[in-house]
Amino acid sequence: MKKILYTLLLGTSFLGFTQESTTQDALRYAIDNLNGTARFRGMSGAFGAVGGDLSAININPAGSVFFNNNYASASVSSFNKNNKANYFGTNSKDFSSKLDINQLGAILVFNSNIEKSNDWNKIAVAINYENNSNLNNNTSFSGLNPYNSIDSYFLRFANGLGNEGVFNVANTGAYFEDLNFIDQQAWLGYNSYILEYDETNNIYFTNVPDSGNYIQRKNSSSVGYNSKVTANVATSYKDKISFGLNLNMHFTDFKNSTTIQESNNGLYATGASISDITFKNDLYTFGNGFSLNLGIIAKATEDLRFGIAYESPTWFNLTDQLSQRVYTTRTEAPLDNDFIDESANPNVIIEFAPYKIKTPSKWTGSMAYIIAKQGLISFDVTSKDYGSTKFKPTKDIVFNNLNKQMSATLKNTIDYRIGGEYKIKQFSLRAGYRFEESPYQTKITMSDLVGYSGGLGYNFGKSRLDLSYSNDKRDYNQKLVSSGMTDSARIKQINNNVTVTYSVNF
Fold this sequence. Notes:
The protein is built from five helices and 23 strands. It has a single domain (12-505), classed as Outer membrane protein transport protein (OMPP1/FadL/TodX) (Porin, Beta Barrel), CATH 2.40.160. By secondary structure, the chain is mainly beta. The chain has helices at 23-30, 38-42, 151-158, 181-191, 397-409, and strands spanning 12-15, 71-87, 90-111, 122-134, 137-145, 195-198, 203-206, 214-237, 241-264, 273-299, 304-311, 315-331, 340-344, 349-352, 355-358, 362-371, 375-385, 390-392, 412-424, 427-436, 449-459, 463-479, 488-505. The strands form two sheets. It has a 14-stranded antiparallel β-barrel. Strands 6-7 form a two-stranded antiparallel ribbon.
């Protein structure tokens, strides 16, 4: 019987080899999203020289010193994602939404009224939680591919990858959970009858017909978050120049389930021929990280401020858990209508060895102009080199190759944010615009992001209620499978977010 390696062992197995990570996985942690308080979001995050908001300290930690009183705020956001996909001329739509507490924090302000001669007479200390990225998302696409089958994915691994030679899955007694990721993919392809092994030539070949059209569909559903807890301290010198420091703890929890289906109408060859394939993957990634921020804000005049801030790389420690299974339908003889259902389902969850990701650092320059104490206009520009993103350990062949690929395909970006606010008695009106360059050298892989926002607030005296709406758009390519074939769908993602913040002075 062919499936001599099939195991019904349930549970979790630990494996000291990585799964196949991608640039998209790295960008999940490297790309910043616009989140925070309603005031912050209403001005598109252009707060680097403004301060006076708990989310503003994420841009420039010196901004906390502009609070005059002890202060606390809590924010609730509605995250809504619309995805429009096109795959070989076929269009599809998906939608996801979530209501979540995305910001919660407080700040204590210490003023010294005793020593007027002391030039350092104000200190602000803050603690703030923010959901940096809402990772809930649903995408699906389908179409008729006249060129390629997903059998290419399994062949890529089965016939050797990098320094690894062909793995003879037919003559080994190893269990699935004892194999590295490369050989696991060969195992799945072989035991689902997608692949056959030619012992004479030491090579795998496919049982999928190479003629006809391949009707393909991919469904992807993810849930999770990237969140951050920030401890901030800031002080000012002669009320002219402010200094701030953030220490950040990052937390991530991400679950993604994908189902890839393929059927074909090709002519069946001699032997086992595959007419239908279903490939399922369930990935769970969790971990934590650390980063820090340094910032300075200087008052050129009472109305004009300039700021500069540095954010270090975030050093993440992550762990992946992965379960995979493949289901196929085959026939044993040419033009035989007697179809047989097969499966390669090891029924195990593989936990791979922990690994690290270092995201890029960034610099932000800012300017803000206060308009007669009734309003303000603010401008931020940020530089970030995505090509410096690294997976570790670098001795891992998959990580080493991926790091080289990211260095060659990702680039340094320049992002812009502009925002304004105007007060009419107790009311505040806000608007903003942001532009973020694609992290890729070519915008075909991922386009630039363009976003708009607006908001309003009402001041009750010792408390305030703020509301914001933001919209942003970006196009990107999503591959059918992670490797072995280049066929991709074009995804147009539109994010619509509504945030409500209640804040109080105490």
